[in-house]
Amino acid sequence: MTDISALKAALGDIRTEDNPAIVKQKSRDFFWYSPVLKRELDAVTGDLIVTPKSEAEVIQVLKACYAQGVPVTPRGSGTGNYGQAMPLSGGVVLNLAEMNAIKSIAPGRVVTEPGAVLAHIDRETRKTGQELRLHPSTYNTASLAGFIAGGSGGVGSINWGGLRDLGNVLRLRIVTMEEEPRVLELGGWDLHKVMHAYGTNGIITEVEVPLDVAYDWVDVVVGFDDYMRAVRFANLLANSDGLLFKEIATVAAPVPHDYFLRHQKFLKKTDSVVLLMVAPHAIDPFLALAAREKAEIRYRSDTASEAEKKGLPPVYELTWNHTTLRGLRVDPSITYLQVLYPFPDHVEKVGRMTEIFGDEVPGHLEFIRFDGNVACTGLPIVRYTSDERLDEIIAIHEDNGCPIFNPHRYTLEEGGMKQTNEVQLAFKREADPKGLLNPGKMVAWENPDFDWESNKVFLFPGLRASS
Amino acid sequence: MTDISALKAALGDIRTEDNPAIVKQKSRDFFWYSPVLKRELDAVTGDLIVTPKSEAEVIQVLKACYAQGVPVTPRGSGTGNYGQAMPLSGGVVLNLAEMNAIKSIAPGRVVTEPGAVLAHIDRETRKTGQELRLHPSTYNTASLAGFIAGGSGGVGSINWGGLRDLGNVLRLRIVTMEEEPRVLELGGWDLHKVMHAYGTNGIITEVEVPLDVAYDWVDVVVGFDDYMRAVRFANLLANSDGLLFKEIATVAAPVPHDYFLRHQKFLKKTDSVVLLMVAPHAIDPFLALAAREKAEIRYRSDTASEAEKKGLPPVYELTWNHTTLRGLRVDPSITYLQVLYPFPDHVEKVGRMTEIFGDEVPGHLEFIRFDGNVACTGLPIVRYTSDERLDEIIAIHEDNGCPIFNPHRYTLEEGGMKQTNEVQLAFKREADPKGLLNPGKMVAWENPDFDWESNKVFLFPGLRASS
């Protein structure tokens, strides 16, 4: 158990908060998307929220926690879905939200502190005609370092691929968890040591990412009476090299009508939709293609009246994890999966899954670039009945060549490639020798002998809440 | 034979030129790249150069020529390679170079007159942080409408595909060749009626094209001791979604050392090269990838000294048709081909051609997006010996699944898909009922019964020079 008063003494003037209600609130993220994680993690809480204002304060916190053996779990805005920012063994929640300065903007580049919120960064970079390449649907609340530490891609991935792709993050500055914390600058391949590592092997204190040109993206919703027609149209758009989109998604009926309540007035119950962000100068050629394909435009923001637009969320807030979020607000019993439909037969694979599962797993695709080709990743809604059926649905996907990134697991490996990431593990040995950073999230660290072939779920013995 | 004095009378104040030496000079393009076209077209000349200053003057010229039955062949800057702008039946060469105004620049769009030179357009659009998506290697001299009427793609095609792709041209304004010429605005699918039609079915008087973000592209030359290593590296770069290039080309040894004379000091005789334009913010991640692949950087413009850069052409002037041009300056006996290596086995196909031909056909690839995938088009040098061997080389390519767009033919079909373009033909019937626009370039018009299966070369009976 953490000795709060000793720790607070060592932290001096650094802002802390130990009111249990607030600590618990700041110890949570969107883990409750998953009925599995909701059960497992609901009681998780830290002991102390610590809110540094500078890298120097981060160093001071890590040094004090190292000395006292206190776990430290970093947190941006807490918009993750897998308990990434939840302190499984208690200790300090390192709230980086106040380190949110935008340090410099140049052609093609921005440098920020870790807690800078994506939409806020873009408000500044747009003054130079630029915006972030990639953002999750939680654009208005998520922090940049949180996105890099816990996300994989999002809006913009149709043009740039994922965060993992070389070039989508330029530089990270991190602080290690050692007796004398070191400050390291990482670029090139070294970035993979700490990207999508949930903060298990270093605390990000500065980020440099590339910028893209900013446009006044036009939100478009296209309706189809058949889901696979929507999928094929989306695939056609994604492969149309002369058209510029920032987002291409599909959602199967009846999800759009039933869950996109503010857009419901534009939709039929039977509508499967394609959700788009279109560059203004691509609208006319896009409409030429839509007309040829007999695609019916249900909504477009560039011609909608002020009355029609009133209260509507942007289209990106219907996509990625927001699709499920809107569903959960209407029907808390649903959940979701994360599926990759690999190129080149991604459309056929989607068709097969649609046939097998029907309305038990209504389709939701996000079109992305993947190693140079257009592929799609899916975040289908699942009408959840039991853990056993959920596992069965996962197994059927995998048996059909559609790998699952399981969103019902809180560890890096189980939500990812189901194998040890040797680069991240090796770096954790260097940067966090006592294993105090975000404990329980890296199976390879906690249980090097874990048998990935066994298909067992990893149970973190340090999970304080479950004891 | 054109009655020059009657025509000049009908043209009033519109600028004309009938000095035979100047007329002949303005009746030529880069047809002499091809030993075949050089023989066939060397004597071609018009009767009169007419230089309109406005759309109203274009209308007046077309009306007068229609009335007198005079052929009209439009010309931008004469940078084509297939006799596109050469008046096979004499008559008027319509020089559009003086109609070169840039009419408006907006986010993502520019509107210009037809004769505006690409580099000049970009000098203006760069003031707004933007530049053209696509340009040929003749960027500094080619006109925008000439590029659209006679080109297919170029620098930038790695990101945007070709001119044919919906969205890469937004609008064309054209004048028809009728008793009362009409002015038409074309967009969407209608653009294909006149794009890449060599001006055979309308005279372009205004162009609207999309713009991309402008960067200070870094010229990079990478050297390899083996051509296929260069090809695989280029293919890897082209498929790296997070890296931003404007140009990716490969050229096989000994062409770079022997023909790129100003860059020779950086190159070994054995160097096969990858030629790149890299976004400044992609340089560091690019170098990380290059290091992993053991690629040796021979030249990069961002770190070269002023002395090293002195007199060097930009890298794009080593690519596309400039590769051959530089070769021709050193060895006038060479020529070239235009090959498509289709996705997904483009690299294997390049390997096979390299094996078969060796130094008889030194490789030159341009990586492009093609229907959503990365593919490559080739402009290999050919060490020309005879027309028969040239035809044989073409046949071997086609037998191996590598379609040839024959640059040794002056007709649209023979240089293209070897079949009638029904859309362009139908539009010619409407827009040029007398067949006076650029005669001899559309086989389907001149000889509707031409047998495409026969493998015969089309001989234009109206070719005045050969009579």
Instruction: Name the CATH architecture of the domain at 218-399 in chain A.
Output: 3-Layer(aba) Sandwich
Q: CATH first level of the domain at 218-399 in chain A: which class?
A: Alpha Beta
Biggest sheet statistics of chain A: 7 strands, antiparallel
Helicity range of the residues of chain A? 25-40%
Organism (chains A, B): Bauldia litoralis
Keywords (chains A, B): FAD, Flavoprotein
GO molecular function (chains A, B): D-lactate dehydrogenase (cytochrome) activity; D-lactate dehydrogenase (NAD+) activity; FAD binding
Domain FAD-binding PCMH-type (chains A, B): 41-214
How does this structure look, described?
Two copies of one chain form a homodimer. Chain A has 467 residues and is α+β, with helices and mostly antiparallel strands. Chain A has a domain at 218-399: Vanillyl-alcohol Oxidase, Chain A, domain 3 (3-Layer(aba) Sandwich). Chain A is built from 16 helices and 19 strands. In chain A, the strands form four sheets. Chain A has a seven-stranded antiparallel β-sheet. In chain A, a hairpin with a 2-residue loop joins strand 5 (102-106) and strand 6. The longest helix of chain A has 14 residues, at 55-68. Chains A and B meet through strand 10 and helix 10 of A and strand 10 and helix 10 of B.
